[in-house]
Amino acid sequence: MRTQSRRGRRALFAAAAAGTMITPLLAACSGAGGGGGSSSHSINVLMVNNPQMVELQKLTAANFTKDTGITVHFTVLPENDVRDKISQDFANQAGQYDVATLSNYEIPIYAKNGWLHPIDSYVKKDTAFDQQDILKPMQQALTAADGKLYGEPFYGESSFLMYRKDVFQKKGLTMPAKPTWQQVANLAAKVDGAEPGMKGICLRGLPGWGEMLAPLTTVVNTFGGTWFDKNWQAQLTSPAFKKATQFYVDLVRKHGESGAPQAGFAECLNDTTQGKTAMWYDATSGAGSLEASGSPVKGKMGYVPAPVDKTDSSGWLYTWAWGIQKASKHADDAWKFISWASGKDYEKLVGEKAGWANVPAGKRSSTYDIPQYRKEAAAFADVTRNAISSAKPNDPGVQPRPAPGIQFVDIPEFTDLGTKVSQELSSAIAGRQSVDSALKKSQQLAEAVGKKYQGS
Asked: In terms of CB atoms within 10 Å, which of 10, 199, 423, 427 comes out highest?
């Protein structure tokens, strides 16, 4: 998940367009139902400018608008900008935008605040959409505390371990089918320096609640730690949290990439593509780039589930999803757009028009039964699907949690808390302070947040 810091974290995908684009897609005159081009049938969509969304924008007028007569006006912005604009418009319930791209971090929070339109009734009526085809963890992550559904995924991801099969073979090493973190650490030591300039593993060290803390928190979870116990008591100095963090910091310092404190998703992707690292633990979305035409490592990579310690699985869960603003006056038309954009036919349209590698996958079970997609993504499709299917957003560790989330804690304060904690821990990776010192400072920050929820 590149997240919030571009996508700070998550820049899961590189921005496909710079700056702001406000593009009205005019309805075709032959629109169905006589609504083509009618101003009474139009919606405003605010979305992030990653490649999949830009492709959607290109396909809308000639397909969705032509078939429904609904004009779609897109506002497309970089991740940080779009988050700010969505938050402002939805918080004020200004109603300027009917639909927006939201992640599984924002949707439960926005739903609790009364900013989103529940979509259960639409799903029930729209049998062709086939809600049961949506992967269960995605459905769960987009369902709020009230039990209602508030979003539909456009695409999804988890995390897994990527490694150089050819390098392992040359060294006489075997990657376990389900590796533990200790096994990964042992392997990192053995493949460190296997080729000139090659490091054993790449792990994010770049500050950001969605950068470094995304992979690190999955390590904390599987080592038996948690940010908060069920009573909102901060746990950052607990033995399990400390053990996981020390392990992560030691591994990246001993066998990780050069410049680790400044390395996020983009940097690790580049290092892996350029043969500078033998292993990489990160978002499943990275595999598409590694296996892309022209990639120096295409066909050389292996993919296995996220490493574990005390849990059966440890991959994270992230999705860019569609949500309808509660104040929207065009909710019916908004649903028709969502149903199309997240539907089975749209995936086939993208595959045929833009290539199967560009299909917004990771959300539907049926996607992995499409022969053309399976052929294109053969190296990583099943591992990705299994990673998403085994993700447990409400139960990612070994003890009860006070809020959902695997690589984050789903509360509004986590963006600030996580960013500050990541700065302390990145400093430890850089060798400017000890892990103990970083966690003591972080514990104080977490305690201040926890107190807001205790007794509530």
From this structure: 10
